[in-house]
Amino acid sequence: MRKNKRTHATGAERKLLDEASPLPLYHQLYLLLREQIMTGMYPPGHLLPAEADLMALFGVSRVTVQRALNTLAAEGLLTRSRGRGTTVSDNSAASRVESPISASINGLLMSLSTVGQGTTVRVISMEYQPAAPYIAEQLQITPGTVIQHAERVRMLRAKPYSHSISYVPKEIGKTFTRKDLEAHPLIDLLHRTGVKIDRVEQAITCTLADERSADLLETKVGSPVLKLRRIFVSDEDRPVNYAEILYPPERFEYRMTWRRDAANQMLLDDSAASLPV
């Protein structure tokens, strides 16, 4: 069913458009709207605010708004029609980054645990709430099902290293406390419950830091950040954790090593994949 309710941007969204940035304002608005479409925040059929509303919300000219929307329409992410407004295209879902970047399960999980031991964590919030449609899709549960929502900042050498939001099924989340989440990597807490991780699905992209992430990561609003989306899947083929993690690019890099096998094929080295700090 199509959603016809217009969405209102927040003050944080308005501040995303940084006039001091080398990126043109239209491109900043384009990146913001594209990120919201690609992550499912604006699903297919969603009606975007009118041009005049976007102008007021972001404090920009009509030309800036039109250029951003026209660029998204040219990519097939939006459908624009006179008198009906601008809606998210039905084809937008096919444009999402769905193919995972595969890393070795042994090397990756070991790296996650090691990174956790070499850093400290500040838990911003941990609460239970109904799963939004996009989160429910990632966890393969019914929208509205209660899940644990936890927001954390990980520190490395007294500097913010990452800002993460994790979503865990309620029955798993209830097995650990806020203090546990501060003291142990989430992957270790999952293992403690008896959950066996069979595979990890990841997608890495870039986005802009909004007001909240910029504050927590001690960077500027609108600064480029790496965004990693990760799903842990158990040996029962059940997603047990979905996380979105933001990293300042100067503090994070993702490494993988590929080796040639006996059949002359390049394969990911299971022992070399890592998340270095």
* Total beta-strand segments: 10
By CATH, the architecture of the largest domain is named 3-Layer(aba) Sandwich
Radius of gyration: 20 Å
**Total individual domains:** 2
Number of helices: 10
Largest sheet: 6 strands, antiparallel
| The CATH fourth-level homologous superfamily of the largest domain | Chorismate lyase-like
| Molecular shape | globular
Structural class: alpha+beta
Give the CA-CA distance, first to last residue: 45 Å
Instruction: Please give the order of strands in the largest beta sheet.
Output: 3-4-5-8-7-6
CATH topology of the largest domain: Chorismate lyase
Beta-strand content: 25-35%
Instruction: Determine and state the CATH class of the largest domain.
Output: Alpha Beta
Uncertain spans: 1-15, 97-111, 271-277
What does this structure look like?
With 277 residues, this protein is α+β, with helices and mostly antiparallel strands. It contains 10 helices and 10 strands. The chain has helices at residues 11-15, 25-38, 51-58, 62-74, 105-117, 133-139, 170-173, 178-183, 186-192, 211-217, and strands spanning 78-81, 85-88, 120-130, 146-156, 159-169, 197-208, 224-234, 239-247, 258-260, 266-268. The strands form 3 sheets. It has a 6-stranded antiparallel sheet with strand order 3-4-5-8-7-6, with helices on both faces. The chain has a two-stranded antiparallel ribbon with strand order 1-2. Helix 2 crosses helix 4 and helix 3 (51-58) crosses helix 4.
Give the helix/strand layout:
Layout: H1 11-15, H2 25-38, H3 51-58, H4 62-74, E1 78-81, E2 85-88, H5 105-117, E3 120-130, H6 133-139, E4 146-156, E5 159-169, H7 170-173, H8 178-183, H9 186-192, E6 197-208, H10 211-217, E7 224-234, E8 239-247, E9 258-260, E10 266-268
Antiparallel strand pairs: 1-2, 3-4, 4-5, 5-8, 6-7, 7-8, 9-10
Helix pairs in contact: 2-4, 3-4
